[in-house]
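Table S2 (continued). Query chain:
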Amino acid sequence: MGAKGPKKWVDFYRWVFVDDCYKFRRFPHNHFDLIIDVGAATGMFTLLARIMNPTATVVSLEPDSIPFEHLSQNVQNLRVYFEKLALGDGEKRYRLLKDRIGRTMFSPYPTDKTDEVVDSARLSDVFYKYGGDLSKKYYIKVDCECGEQWLVGHEPSEEILYNAMAIGMKLHFPSAHPHSPRYYNEPWAADFGVYYDWWNRVFTDHDVVYERSSRKSGYGHLLISRRF
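Corresponding output:
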């Protein structure tokens, strides 16, 4: 794994616990019944979710075998459900060799850079598997390196997102820079306009904030709260 691994874990801690990039700490303790962490990596957000919501059902998904190993260790004995699974449409996903821990892309197509194959699932499948209820208080966090595009246009998943109390989502899209180190310029990746049209179509009864964005690098944070 090399030196990048431990440094990246420090970055995860800073982004989630110190910077509070999903603005999760604005919610009271024990506010949610269910929390789903899509793209959990080593589990930093999962740990924050469990600390702040000790009675909630917490579910973590991470397809990459390296961070998944650490996720499984980090959440031991914390009553967290975790699965080695990518967000997708139920078909296989193929890990791209060029990526590093915490920034791993899983392509819908096999290539000569594929070194790991994993299963994928719809958000709706995971939500209902773990007792999700549209009338309850739940939070969805998504950071899955272009996998969030599989939420767009899938009505059962959009219904779940629409009824969520809050969502924290990191969007990934082809960058404006041809040599961006973010690696999101895959031919199958959805561009920014797809996401912009999507959130304006779906989240009509919500407060929507888009921040911490770099069009040059191809990412940004979408924070959504339902108005009641």
